[in-house]
Automatic annotation (TrEMBL):
<feature type="binding site">
    <location>
        <position position="73"/>
    </location>
    <ligand>
        <name>substrate</name>
    </ligand>
</feature>
<protein>
    <recommendedName>
        <fullName>Glutamate dehydrogenase</fullName>
    </recommendedName>
</protein>
<feature type="binding site">
    <location>
        <position position="224"/>
    </location>
    <ligand>
        <name>NAD(+)</name>
    </ligand>
</feature>
<feature type="binding site">
    <location>
        <position position="97"/>
    </location>
    <ligand>
        <name>substrate</name>
    </ligand>
</feature>
<dbReference type="InterPro" id="IPR006097">
    <property type="entry name" value="Glu/Leu/Phe/Val/Trp_DH_dimer"/>
</dbReference>
<keyword id="KW-0560">Oxidoreductase</keyword>
<feature type="binding site">
    <location>
        <position position="193"/>
    </location>
    <ligand>
        <name>NAD(+)</name>
    </ligand>
</feature>
<dbReference type="InterPro" id="IPR006095">
    <property type="entry name" value="Glu/Leu/Phe/Val/Trp_DH"/>
</dbReference>
<dbReference type="InterPro" id="IPR033524">
    <property type="entry name" value="Glu/Leu/Phe/Val_DH_AS"/>
</dbReference>
<dbReference type="InterPro" id="IPR014362">
    <property type="entry name" value="Glu_DH"/>
</dbReference>
<dbReference type="GO" id="GO:0004352">
    <property type="term" value="F:glutamate dehydrogenase (NAD+) activity"/>
</dbReference>
<dbReference type="InterPro" id="IPR046346">
    <property type="entry name" value="Aminoacid_DH-like_N_sf"/>
</dbReference>
<dbReference type="InterPro" id="IPR033922">
    <property type="entry name" value="NAD_bind_Glu_DH"/>
</dbReference>
<comment type="similarity">
    <text>Belongs to the Glu/Leu/Phe/Val dehydrogenases family.</text>
</comment>
<dbReference type="Pfam" id="PF00208">
    <property type="entry name" value="ELFV_dehydrog"/>
</dbReference>
<dbReference type="InterPro" id="IPR006096">
    <property type="entry name" value="Glu/Leu/Phe/Val/Trp_DH_C"/>
</dbReference>
<dbReference type="GO" id="GO:0000166">
    <property type="term" value="F:nucleotide binding"/>
</dbReference>
Length: 420
C-alpha cells in the first residue's frame, strides 16, 4: 500500500514535505513512521441509477489519517481526478492543519471520482446518499465529521445528514459540518475559508508595511474559497486585478468589481466575458506584479518554472498543496515572497467547522459576527505563533507551519504510547 500511495504525485509531495519537516524536528524513526502513514483507508464502489436509465458505477474514498487527538475532520470532494493517493495526501495536510490550529481533531478527506458539472441534481443526490450509506459505520460526531470541498456544498451535506438521520431514527446534525443553517449549520461557515485567506493575506501585508488601500491582488480559482477571498480583499480596500477559473482568466488594472463578477458567474457559469475586463492567459495572470497572489484552485498549480517568475510580495495559499516542492525551494531561496502556507492560510474552513460542531453538541447557535470574530482571533494567534517560530528557528514558513503541526501530533503519539 505504501508503494501505491507514493506513486501518486500529490501524496508523494505531501510525504516529501513531511520527511523534510521530520528531519528538521529530528523525530525518531518510530514516531516518524506512525505519524506519516494514514490510520484507515476506505474505498467503495457506488452504483447509481442515472437519468437516462443506465446504471453507472463510481468509486469513492475516505482516508482517516490519525485519531490520536480526537475525531477526524475533512471535506468530501467531487472531481474527475479523485483517487486514493490524492485523498490520503489531503487527509495528511488536514491532520497538520488541525494540529497547527490546536483544534481537537485528526485529519481526514473523502472524495468521489465524478464530474458534478455533468450530472443532474437528482444524480448527485443519489450518488451522495449511496456514498453516505457506505460511510455511515465510519463517520459520526465522535469519529469522523465530513464537510464540503471541491464540487460539493451545503446541499451535499444536507443529503448526508438526512441519510444518517433516517438510519439512526433521529436527527443527527453533528455527523457533518458545512450544513444549511436550517439544519443547524453555522453562520459564517460558507465564507470562512475565503475570509481566512484574505485575513491572513492582509495581516502579512501589514507586517510588510503595505497598506491595503494601496495593495493589489490576483486570485486563481473563483469557487467558494476564491470568490470569498476576492470579495473580502476588495472590501478591505485591495484592488483585485485578476481572477481565473477553469474557463479562463480576466483582468482589470483598476480592480474588478467582485460582487458584480459573482452575479455574472451565477448567470453564465464562468468569469469569462465579464464587463469592464479583458481576457488574459491564466498562467500569465499569476506572474503579474501584484502584492498578493492567492492560488485557490487545485494542487500543484505553482511549478518550479512559475516560481522563478512570480512577482507577488505575498503568496497566500488558499488551495491545498498549490506549490510543488521544487517551487517551494525556489521561493525559500529567493527570500522576497512572504509565504502563507496552505495549512495556515486556508484553515478558516475547518476552524468554523469546529465551531459548528461545538454548537451542534451544545444545541446552541452563535451569530455570524461572533463566529467571524472567534475565527479571526484564532487565526491571528496562530499566524503570529508561526511567524515567531520561523524567525526563532530561522526556517521558512512552510517548515514552521508543518513543524508546529507535526510536533503536536508526535507529542500526543509519544504520550499515548503504542498498543499493544
Amino acid at each position: 500500500m505504501k508503494e501505491i500511495l507514493l506513486a501518486n504525485e500529490t501524496f508523494g509531495m505531501a510525504a516529501e514535505q513531511f520527511d523534510r519537516t521530520a528531519e528538521f524536528l529530528e523525530l525518531n524513526e518510530s514516531v516518524r513512521e506512525r505519524c506519516k502513514w494514514p490510520k484507515r483507508m476506505l474505498s467503495f464502489s457506488l452504483p447509481v441509477h442515472m437519468d437516462d436509465g443506465r446504471t453507472e458505477v463510481f468509486f469513492g474514498h475516505r482516508v482517516q489519517h490519525h485519531l490520536s487527538r480526537g475525531p477526524v475532520k475533512g471535506g468530501i470532494r467531487y472531481h474527475p481526478s479523485v483517487e486514493i493517493g490524492e485523498v490520503a495526501a489531503l487527509a495528511m495536510w488536514m491532520n497538520w492543519k488541525c494540529a497547527l490550529m490546536k483544534l481537537p481533531y485528526g485529519g481526514a478527506k473523502g472524495g468521489i471520482a465524478c464530474n458534478p458539472r455533468e450530472m443532474s441534481l437528482g444524480e448527485q443526490e443519489r450518488l451522495t446518499r449511496r456514498f453516505a450509506q457506505e460511510l455511515l459505520p465510519f463517520i459520526g460526531e465522535d469519529i469522523d465529521i465530513p464537510a464540503p470541498d471541491v464540487g460539493t456544498n451545503a446541499q451535499t451535506m444536507a443529503w448526508i445528514v438526512d441519510t444518517a438521520s433516517t438510519q439512526a431514527g433521529r436527527f443527527t446534525p453533528g455527523v457533518v459540518t458545512g450544513k444549511p443553517l436550517e439544519l443547524q449549520g453555522s453562520a459564517g461557515r460558507t465564507q470562512a475559508t475565503g475570509h481566512g485567506v484574505a485575513f491572513t493575506a492582509t495581516r502579512a501585508l501589514s507586517r510588510l508595511g503595505v497598506k491595503t488601500n494601496n495593495a493589489s491582488a490576483v486570485v486563481q480559482g473563483f469557487g467558494n474559497v476564491g470568490s470569498y477571498a476576492a470579495e473580502t480583499l476588495m472590501f478591505d480596500g485591495v484592488k483585485v486585478k485578476g481572477v481565473s477559473d477553469v474557463s479562463g482568466a480576466i483582468w482589470n488594472d483598476n480592480g474588478l468589481d467582485i460582487c458584480g463578477l459573482r452575479q455574472h458567474v451565477m448567470k453564465t457559469g464562468s468569469v469569462v466575458g465579464f464587463d469592464n475586463s479583458e481576457a488574459i492567459d491564466p498562467q500569465e495572470m499569476m506572474i503579474q506584479k501584484v502584492d498578493v497572489l492567492a492560488p485557490c484552485a487545485m494542487e500543484r498549480a505553482i511549478s518550479k518554472e512559475m516560481a522563478e517568475k512570480l512577482q507577488c510580495r505575498v503568496l497566500a495559499e488558499g488551495a491545498n498543496g498549490p506549490t510543488t516542492p521544487e517551487a517551494d525551494a525556489i521561493i525559500e531561496e529567493r527570500g522576497d515572497i512572504f509565504l502563507i502556507p496552505d495549512v495556515m492560510c486556508n484553515a478558516g474552513g475547518v476552524t468554523v467547522s469546529y465551531f459548528e460542531w461545538v454548537q451542534n453538541l451544545q444545541r446552541f447557535s452563535w451569530t455570524e459576527r461572533e463566529v467571524i470574530s472567534k475565527l479571526e482571533t484564532l487565526m491571528a494567534a496562530t499566524f503570529d505563533r508561526l511567524v515567531a517560530f520561523a524567525e526563532a528557528r530561522k526556517c521558512g514558513h512552510r517548515v514552521a507551519a508543518l513543524a508546529l503541526g507535526i510536533k503536536e501530533v508526535a507529542d500526543v503519539k509519544k504520550t499515548r504510547g503504542l498498543y499493544p
